[in-house]
Amino acid sequence: MARRLLLFALSVLALLVLWLAIAASALAYDGSVAAAYADTYWQNYNTAWPSFANRGGDCTNFVSQALYSGGIAMRTSPTYSGDAAWYMLPKSGHRWTYSLPWINAQHQSVFALRYLPGVTQLASYYGVAPGQSVADHASQGDIVLYDWNNDDTYDHESIVVASDGANPDGTANWDLVDAHTNNRYHAYWTLAQYNASWATTRIVVLHIAPTTN
Fold first, then answer.
1. Whose CB has fewer CB within 10 Å in the chain, the N or C terminal residue?
2. What angle do CA 94, 99, 101 make, to 5 degrees?
3. Rounded-to-integer distance, Cα 61 and Cα 107, Å
């Protein structure tokens, strides 16, 4: 009898561990889903969310939507505050309440690097010229931050969505990005070709691990 109870308990425990593993996997970040979202809404904005295109720029709001679609969970107040909070929620009267890291590139960089587990910096460049190829070491669903005048404040953000070739070992170069304000689809990731301030621009790539949620 005791042996049967032990075997039953072990079976239940094994099923619980399996369920937790599946649940954790389901909640983890999927960069391909985030990229698909960006490809869908790079030009035709998702009306389920507010747009900031005419209120200082929609780039980070767009990336946040994609990250959320890919599986990053909101961090709402009052549980989280300051740059540790990351959310966009509706309130009465067709209005929204949100945290700065959801809509602002500089604040999102702090949120990602300081408060979002599994985020690491992959690359950093300064003064990349139009037509110049540089390695981003990115994966689909990673984010790119741009500081136009190298003053330690990020002004713009995009999301890595597609490959433009292969590395020497045959793995994909995820070098193409989507962005809002201005709207970009599968643009070379440095955006130097559109940037009159390329000579003073610092660019940083952040990797979001698949285990992040």
1. N
2. 130
3. 12
